[in-house]
Specification:
The chain is an alpha/beta fold. It folds into 2 domains: 137 residues, Rossmann fold (3-Layer(aba) Sandwich), CATH 3.40.50.2300; 147 residues, 3-Layer(aba) Sandwich (Rossmann fold). The protein is 43% helix and 18% strand. It contains 13 helices and 12 strands. The strands form 2 sheets. Strands 7-6-8-9-10-11-12 form a 7-stranded mixed β-sheet, with helices on both faces. Strand 9, helix 10 and strand 10 form a beta-alpha-beta unit. Helix 3 crosses helix 4 and helix 5 crosses helix 6.
C-alpha cells in the first residue's frame, strides 16, 4: 500500500527497533509462561492426634475447604501431607519428624500434636489448629508476640469445660455428681472441670479410659456409684472411640455431653465446643499469610469467638429426658 499525501515519513530505523523489541518480547514470553507453569505447589503438612478412619477428621476436611475459599486449588497450589496419631501420642514424634524430612512449607497441628511438631522443628512454621494454654505449654512466648515458629488458634479449654458442666447442670438440676471420663489423668481440662464443678456446688467423679473395654468399665462403675450424668473429655483417645462412647452411654442410659458437633449428630445427647468451621477458616488464614511471606513470630495468636451447642432430641427421647425450653432456645442445632 502506497503512502498517501500527508502521511508521516517512513523511518526504517524505527521499524528495526520495533521488530527487535517485539522479537525479544516473543522470545521471553515462553520463558515467563514456563516459569509460571513450573511453580511448585506449597506442601502443607497436617499433624492430627486423632484417627483417619472411617472418614477424614472434620477439622482436616474444613481446612481443605477453607483453603479453597481463599483461592487455593489442591494439586495446583498446594499438596497436603496428612499424618494421624490414631489416638496414640507416642506415634506423633516420628510422624512430625517425617513431615520435617519431607520439607513441608508449613505444619498445621492440633492438640498435643503441636508439642511433637515443635520438638521436631524450630524453623518450619507451625500453625495451631487448636490448643489450650499455648503460653503455659511453652509453644509461644505470648499471645500478642509468639516469638518463634508457632502461631495459630488457641482454644480456652477450661472455659469450654466449665460451660459444658453448666449446661449439664441446667439439663439435670438435681444432680450433685457428674462423671468425667478422660484418656489422661490430671490434665488441664480435668482441673478446669473440677474448679467449675466446685463453683456450681457439684463434684466431679473422674474415670480414666483409653480403649472400649476401659470405657465400658468406667461407665459401669459410674452407674454403680449412682452417677446419673457423664461428660466425656476432648482427649483424642476418646474422640477416636466416639461410636463406642455413644453406644455405651445409650446402653447404660447415661445422658452424656461431648465437645464435638459430629458426636451429637451421630447419636450423642449434647455437644458444646468451638465452631469447627470458624477454627478451620482461621487456621487456613494463618497458612495463607505464612505462604505469602509472613513470619509466625509476628502473627498474634487468635482465640475462638464462635461456639456451638447441639442437642439431639432423638437421644433425649430414648433416655426419657425432657430438654428444658431455655436450653433448646439457645441451641445452634436441634436434631429431631
Amino acid at each position: 500500500m502506497r503512502d498517501g499525501p500527508g502521511a508521516p515519513p517512513h523511518h526504517p530505523r524505527m521499524d528495526r527497533r520495533f521488530l527487535v523489541t517485539a522479537l525479544a518480547s516473543a522470545l521471553a514470553l515462553p520463558r515467563i509462561v514456563g516459569a509460571q507453569e513450573k511453580r511448585k505447589p506449597a506442601r502443607i503438612g497436617v499433624l492430627h492426634p486423632g484417627a483417619s478412619h472411617p472418614t477424614e477428621p472434620l477439622r482436616v476436611r474444613i481446612l481443605r475447604s477453607a483453603l479453597g475459599e481463599l483461592g487455593y486449588v489442591e494439586g495446583r497450589d498446594f499438596i497436603m501431607e496428612a499424618r494421624y496419631g490414631e489416638g496414640r501420642p507416642d506415634r506423633l514424634p516420628e510422624l512430625a519428624a517425617d513431615l520435617v524430612r519431607r520439607q513441608v512449607d508449613v505444619i498445621v497441628a492440633s492438640g498435643f500434636a503441636i508439642g511433637a511438631a515443635r520438638t521436631a522443628t524450630s524453623t518450619i512454621p507451625i500453625v495451631m489448629n487448636f490448643s489450650g494454654d499455648p503460653v503455659g505449654r511453652g509453644y509461644v512466648q505470648s499471645v500478642a508476640r509468639p516469638g518463634g515458629n508457632v502461631t495459630g488458634v488457641a482454644t480456652l479449654a477450661p472455659d469450654v469445660t466449665a460451660k459444658r458442666l453448666e449446661l449439664l447442670r441446667e439439663l439435670m438440676p438435681d444432680v450433685d455428681r457428674i462423671g468425667y471420663v478422660t484418656g489422661l489423668a490430671d490434665t488441664q481440662e480435668q482441673r478446669g472441670a473440677e474448679r467449675a464443678a466446685d463453683a456450681l456446688g457439684v463434684s466431679v467423679v473422674p474415670m480414666i479410659a483409653g480403649d472400649p473395654a476401659d470405657v465400658e468399665q468406667a461407665l459401669q462403675r459410674l452407674k454403680q456409684a449412682g452417677v446419673k450424668v457423664v461428660m466425656f473429655s476432648s482427649d483424642p483417645r476418646l474422640a477416636r472411640l466416639s461410636p463406642q462412647l455413644i453406644g455405651l452411654s445409650a446402653k447404660y442410659r447415661l445422658p452424656a455431653s461431648y465437645e464435638f458437633r459430629e458426636q451429637a449428630e451421630n447419636g450423642g445427647l449434647m455437644s458444646y465446643g468451638m465452631d469447627a468451621v470458624d477454627l478451620g477458616r482461621r487456621a487456613a488464614s494463618f497458612v495463607d499469610r505464612i505462604l505469602k511471606g509472613a513470619k509466625p513470630a509476628d502473627l498474634p495468636v487468635e482465640q475462638p469467638t464462635k461456639f456451638e451447642l447441639v442437642i439431639n432430641l432423638k437421644t433425649a427421647k430414648a433416655l426419657g429426658l425432657t430438654i428444658p425450653p431455655s436450653l433448646l432456645a439457645r441451641a445452634d442445632q436441634v436434631i429431631e
